[in-house]
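Let's sit down with a protein and look at its sequence and fold side by side. Which protein we use is up to you, so please pick one and set it down. Label the sequence line and the structure token line clearly, so we can match residues to local backbone shapes. Go ahead whenever you are ready, and we will take it from there:

***
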Amino acid sequence: MAIFDVFNPLQNITPKFIEEQINEIVEWFDANSKPLLVIKDGDPINVITIEQLIDFLKLRKFHRRSFHYPSYAEIMNEAEKLKAGVTRMLTKEQFIYILDKWIVETNLKHELGLAFKIFDTEKRNFLEIDEIRTIVTTYGDIFNEAATLELLRDANVRGDGNVFYEDFIESLFSVAPEMNNIKTEYLYENPDEDPSIPPEPVVEEKPPAQKVLPTPPPSAPPPQPTSSKKEKKK
């Protein structure tokens, strides 16, 4: 078993980012890193701080459908695994590795559910057997027609021949658990069109509060002139 090297965490893994995303991450790192970390009396290594990682995440460079934006606690948990909890500094390899941990890959069960919902235009949560057969035999090319008909015999079929597709999907993965490991494409190529992803919440910026100057206290009446000498008695 290979020993995990915290300073070279990408040694035995292949990042899930596509090449274009890797290039964008590296470009940002090179523009923002500084030679602050020295390992075993070697030359200083370029690093970014945890605070800079948080700033990078705030840029929202990745769509929420394919990337989980972590909380501060989740960030520090991963930093601790890289021995960066105390130094609060990350090398380029650590930066790519820690971001790659939050990649969200496609889920076949989820995408099949979306495919069924496209056919379910009346939002009834069930479809006709022919529609089910068409989707399963074409999307992902997992089952042929004979295997699909065999599965449909055990599905929750109504008296009118309709199938509750959520139950059918569960039966598919129960019969063939290896389907959980099948890689698939997103049904919606444009993530902004994916109905299962809620829109990004819009945070309205509050106008700056106007400073209310304190009301100055009323000015004291001018002092009355006093005579320095007592008036002579008449």
The first helix runs from residue 19 to 32. The helical segments are 19-32, 50-58, 72-81, 92-100, 108-119, 129-138, 145-153, 165-175. The chain has a mean pLDDT of 81. Residues 19-100 form a domain with the Recoverin; domain 1 fold (CATH 1.10.238.10).
